[in-house]
# Entry
Amino acid sequence: MAKIQLGVMFGSRTCEHEVSIISGVQLARAADREKYDVWPIYIDKDGRWYTGDKLLDIKTYTPFDPYAKGITRVTLDLTAGSGALISYQQNNGLFNKGVTPVTVCKLDCVIPVMHGLHGEDGTIQGLMELANIPYSSTGVGGSAIGMDKIMMKQVFRGMNFPILPDIFALRSQWQADPDAVIARVEEKLDYPVFCKPACLGSSIGVSRANDREGLRESLDLAFSYDRRVLIEKGLDRPIEVNCSVLGYDGETQASVTEMPTTASGDLLDFADKYLSGGGGSKGMASLQRVMPAPVGDEMVKRIEKLSCDVFNALDCKGVVRIDYMLTGEDELYITEINTIPGSMAFYLWNESGLPYPKLIDKLVEYAQKAHADKNENNYAFTSDILNGVSLGGKTGAKNGGKLGGKLG
Ligand SMILES: Nc1ncnc2c1ncn2[C@@H]1O[C@H](COP(=O)(O)OP(=O)(O)O)[C@@H](O)[C@H]1O
Ligand SMILES: [Mg+2]
# Structure
């Protein structure tokens, strides 16, 4: 059987660019070469796309040299079903100085391994839908809601999922009248509170405020990253538990749970997540953890069930990770969902008896299934409404903006 041409996409214009490179290279290296021709696709911080075997070496990125041997600049052909990565090659002929498009490969499936904006937030997913390429992550709507902590909590509240009370504010409101924003926070919430940029991850811009002065600093920080900020009731040193879910279309399985153990300050920060494993970051795989989380069988069961419910609520696909906070009184709250989790949570699946290459096989399988399901939909609704329509007159300003004919 012909091998599947598998695109592994990472990088992109996001604060989590470097984290995504680690996750992407990890996945690309783990994919089974018997089944796949792997095409690493790196999107740099300016949004340029590259492919080539050299992208599989993590040293390639320190610093990244786009002209290095083994790296080819490409663009994606958006024609539905094409899947082509195109490289534009300079012609050297005397009378032919233009460029020639060359098809480097035709992708059968893409695994987006991107964290944060322009990758985990529904944008790449929209691109894949347009180009009609099977892809392994949650769809446009679920990805967008999962990325946006404000909307995510509104949806979760609607589903009666356990979440902490919060309010949100806009940067324009903060700039115009900071005291009014502070008054709104204090009316609804007691200190401490946590301020979070709506659409970020990896704890970037997240901080705890213990009083009014701290709140000003926290809001300044969060608004430097995002136009919208979530302000949430804070817990004191909660136990954190994460659980991954794998599935598609009502089929779900929950992974072993983990309890991160390196939290030394007020929150599990960027350094805890990626710099705590000693020399050489392995992305989220570096974090110190206990698996399964030592929170009792009953709580673990509750977390597994809730994780599958959250997965289904956002119509997720592939692998996600849902994070929780637990108080000493056994109160359980959802912190967030990551629809493209760090390191694709492979370490949790490994512990659950599913080695990384097999996890990747499942991602491809669900991507293909979702693609087949989509193409079962009827896009061919035909009608003859175009026949006999006359919109008359000239177009644009010369016509005074008026169109002839009638619609509706
Ligand atoms: N309401 C809260 N109370 C106490 N700690 C919190 C709260 N919200 C977040 N944290 C801490 O901050 C970390 C990052 O918050 P999170 O919402 O997961 O943002 P990110 O998407 O950046 O990971 C959490 O892992 C936890 O350690
Ligand atoms: Mg988090």
About this structure: The two ends are 51 Å apart (CA to CA).
